């Protein structure tokens, strides 16, 4: 009997492994293997699916890499509680559409208003100093009519940090880095004088948020952030209407 080429054996095993991955993933999706439950043993899968131990182990490794299962050594393989939950992301290809920029700001309103309220309750003196420094940096940006978004970003990040909830900080970093530069792109045709007036107004709103946070005014901080981002949304829409 002629020996089979190693590459042919590998291709077949890879195909079988993919089939096992699809079978188990489908069972997880349908709830046959509920979240948090233990998968059948390696031997049970081998016997049921008619494949080798190597194929099953490769399939489990792929399922683990896909975030569907976790391996508890000495105990077994378990379906993850978050199995099949797609990670949140904004579609970059559509982010310049006006309606998507508006939706992004609406999302920021909901998240950052609550972060500001928590910041008013939990802020430290170091947090106040970080927000104050960002406002001063924006004062300099006003004088230069700078189109750089860094001072604006730093202020909002300092508020998120002052919430002392790492989830607010992480989601702000994602939303801020994704949305804020694109929103500022529409200012490229604005003259320097008009831009300075715009930035000064924005920084006044930042200082109102800072004042409420420093005073530990929870409701005031929430309202000031909501007004600031709501006004930013309205200004963006008005500017885009004028550019048409």
UniProtKB/TrEMBL annotation:
UniProtKB keywords: DNA-binding, Transcription, Transcription regulation
InterPro entries recorded: GntR_C (IPR011711), TF_FadR/GntR_C (IPR008920), Tscrpt_reg_HTH_GntR (IPR000524), WH-like_DNA-bd_sf (IPR036388), WH_DNA-bd_sf (IPR036390)
SMART domains registered for this protein in UniProt: FCD, HTH_GNTR
GO terms for MF: DNA binding; DNA-binding transcription factor activity
Origin: domain of life: Bacteria
Domain (HTH gntR-type): residue spans on this chain: 14-82
Pfam families in the record: FCD, GntR
Entry-linked Gene3D superfamilies: GntR ligand-binding domain-like (1.20.120.530), Winged helix-like DNA-binding domain superfamily/Winged helix DNA-binding domain (1.10.10.10)
Record's protein name: GntR domain protein
């Amino acid at each position: 009997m002629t020996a089979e080429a190693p590459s042919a054996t590998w291709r077949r095993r890879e195909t079988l492994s993919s089939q096992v991955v699809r079978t188990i993933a489908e069972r997880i999706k349908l709830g046959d293997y509920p979240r948090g439950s233990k998968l059948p043993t390696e031997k049970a899968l081998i016997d049921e699916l008619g494949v080798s131990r190597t194929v099953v182990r490769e399939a489990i490794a792929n399922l683990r890499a896909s975030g569907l299962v976790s391996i508890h050594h000495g105990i077994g393989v378990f379906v993850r509680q978050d199995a099949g939950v797609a990670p949140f992301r904004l579609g970059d290809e559509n982010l310049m559409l006006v309606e998507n920029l508006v939706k992004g700001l609406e999302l920021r309103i909901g998240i950052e208003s609550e972060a500001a309220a928590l910041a008013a309750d939990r802020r430290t003196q170091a947090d106040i100093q970080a927000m104050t420094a960002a406002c001063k940096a924006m004062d300099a940006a006003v004088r230069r009519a700078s189109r750089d978004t860094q001072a604006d970003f730093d202020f909002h990040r300092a508020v998120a940090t002052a919430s002392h909830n790492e989830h607010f900080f992480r989601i702000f970093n994602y939303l801020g880095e994704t949305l804020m530069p694109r929103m500022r792109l529409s200012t490229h045709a604005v003259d320097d004088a008009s831009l300075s007036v715009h930035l000064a107004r924005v920084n006044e709103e930042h200082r109102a948020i800072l004042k409420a946070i420093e005073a530990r005014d929870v409701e005031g901080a929430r309202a000031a952030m909501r007004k600031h981002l709501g006004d930013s949304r309205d200004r963006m829409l008005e500017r885009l209407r004028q550019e048409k």
